[in-house]
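Please fill in the sequence for the structure shown.

STRUCTURE ENCODING:
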C-alpha cells in the first residue's frame, strides 16, 4: 500500500513589523490619541458616563428635581399654607390650548359646583363658559423665599378670580401640585443628609476595621452584627416613635435624618472592610508603608479610590432607600409631622381606602417618588460602570 504524499505546508505569514523602532513615535500621536492617553481618571470617567444614555437621562431628571427645590416658592402656583375652602376635594383641572376652535393658550375651565344631598359629596364639573387662561411669570400670593426674603413672583398663576388646580385639592382645599413641589424639598434633602452620616460612619469604621485588623476588627464587627440583628423597619418605627411630640418640626426632621443615617452604615462598613482586607497586601500599599505614609493617607489616598465604583453604587442605592424610609415612616404617621410637608406626609392623607376610591388624585405624590427612585437606580448603574474607565 503506497502512502499518499503529504502536501507541502504553506509558509506562515510574518506579522511582525520590519520597520525600525522609533522611540519618538509617542511624540507624533494624533491630537485625539494624545488627549486620551494624557486624560485624568475623572475625565475618562466622564467620557464613559456620557456613553450611557439612560444614565445621562436619569442624571438630567435628578438634576431637575434637585434644582426645583431651590426655587419651590416660585414654581408652586400657590403657597404651602394657602387654603381654598370653596374647593374642597376638587378634582384636577385639565389643561387646554384651544377653545371653540380658536387658540387661546394654556387655560383651564372653571368649576361648576353642586352638593349631592344623598351622598353629601361635592360634585365638580367643568364649566365651558368659564375660560381661565393661565398667567406666566406673574405676581401671585406672597411668600417668604426660603423663609428669609419676601416675594410674590410665580412661574404661573391662575387667572384673576379663577383657579388652577392641575392636580386637584385635598380635604382643606389646598393645591396638591403646590404641596408636592414643596414636599420635594424635604424628601430629597433627607436622603442627602442621611447618606452623609452613613458614609462618614461606614467608611471610617470599615476602613479602620479592614486596615488594622486584630481586636479592633473584632470589636467593630461585633458592633455591626448587633446593629444588623435588629429588623430594619421595626427599628425605624421604634426610634421614630420615641421622638418626643413636643419637639419642633425642624428638630424632628433632623432626628429622622440621623436615625436613617445611623441605621444604614453597617452594610457599607462591612463592604469597605472586606475590600481593605484584600487590598492592604497589594504592592503599592506595602510600598506606601515603607515610604512612611501614615494609615490615614494610605486608606483615603490609595485604598478607597481603588474601589470607588462600589462606593458610588452604594451611595446611589442608599439615597433612594432613605427616601423610601422617610416616605414609609411618614405614611405610617411615625415620621415627619405637619406643618412639615414631604411626599410621605402627603401620602399619609391617602391611608383611607374610601378616600382613595373617591379622590384618587390624592395618590399623586406616588408619581415623583417612583420617578426619583427609578432615576437613582439608572444613574447609579451608569456611575458604577464609569468608575472603572479602564475596563
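FILLED IN BY: designer on duty
SEQUENCE:
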Amino acid at each position: 500500500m503506497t502512502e499518499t504524499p503529504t502536501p507541502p505546508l504553506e509558509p506562515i505569514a510574518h506579522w511582525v513589523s520590519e520597520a525600525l523602532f522609533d522611540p519618538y513615535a509617542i511624540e507624533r500621536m494624533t491630537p485625539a490619541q494624545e488627549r486620551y492617553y494624557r486624560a485624568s481618571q475623572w475625565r475618562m470617567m466622564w467620557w464613559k458616563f456620557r456613553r450611557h444614555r439612560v444614565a445621562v437621562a436619569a442624571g438630567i431628571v435628578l438634576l431637575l428635581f434637585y434644582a426645583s427645590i431651590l426655587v419651590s416658592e416660585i414654581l408652586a402656583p400657590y403657597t404651602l399654607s394657602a387654603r381654598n375652602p370653596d374647593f374642597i376635594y376638587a378634582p384636577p383641572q385639565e389643561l387646554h390650548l384651544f377653545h371653540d376652535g380658536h387658540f387661546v393658550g394654556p387655560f383651564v375651565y372653571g368649576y361648576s359646583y353642586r352638593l349631592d344631598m344623598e351622598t353629601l359629596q361635592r360634585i365638580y364639573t367643568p364649566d365651558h363658559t368659564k375660560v381661565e387662561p393661565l398667567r406666566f411669570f406673574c405676581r401671585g400670593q406672597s411668600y417668604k423665599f426660603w423663609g428669609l426674603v419676601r416675594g410674590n413672583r410665580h412661574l404661573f398663576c391662575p387667572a384673576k378670580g379663577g383657579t388652577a388646580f392641575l392636580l386637584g385639592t385635598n380635604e382643606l382645599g389646598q393645591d396638591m401640585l403646590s404641596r408636592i413641589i414643596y414636599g420635594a424639598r424635604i424628601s430629597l434633602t433627607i436622603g442627602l443628609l442621611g447618606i452623609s452620616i452613613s458614609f462618614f460612619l461606614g467608611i471610617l469604621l470599615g476602613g479602620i476595621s479592614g486596615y488594622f485588623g486584630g481586636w479592633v476588627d473584632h470589636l467593630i464587627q461585633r458592633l455591626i452584627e448587633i446593629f444588623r440583628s435588629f429588623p430594619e423597619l421595626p427599628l425605624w418605627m421604634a426610634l421614630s416613635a420615641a421622638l418626643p411630640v413636643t419637639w419642633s418640626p425642624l428638630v424632628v426632621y433632623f432626628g429622622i435624618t440621623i436615625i436613617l443615617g445611623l441605621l444604614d452604615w453597617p452594610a457599607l462598613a462591612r463592604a469597605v472592610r472586606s475590600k481593605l482586607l484584600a487590598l492592604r497586601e497589594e504592592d503599592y500599599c506595602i510600598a506606601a508603608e515603607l515610604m512612611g505614609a501614615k494609615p490615614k493617607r494610605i486608606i483615603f489616598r490609595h485604598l478607597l479610590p481603588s474601589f470607588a465604583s462600589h462606593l458610588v453604587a452604594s451611595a446611589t442605592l442608599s439615597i433612594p432607600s432613605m427616601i423610601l424610609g422617610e416616605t414609609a415612616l411618614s405614611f405610617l404617621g411615625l415620621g415627619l409631622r405637619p406643618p412639615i410637608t414631604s411626599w410621605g406626609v402627603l401620602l399619609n392623607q391617602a391611608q383611607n381606602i374610601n378616600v382613595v376610591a373617591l379622590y384618587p388624585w390624592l395618590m399623586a405624590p406616588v408619581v415623583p417618588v417612583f420617578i426619583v427612585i427609578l432615576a437613582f437606580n439608572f444613574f447609579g448603574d451608569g456611575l458604577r460602570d464609569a468608575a472603572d474607565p479602564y475596563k
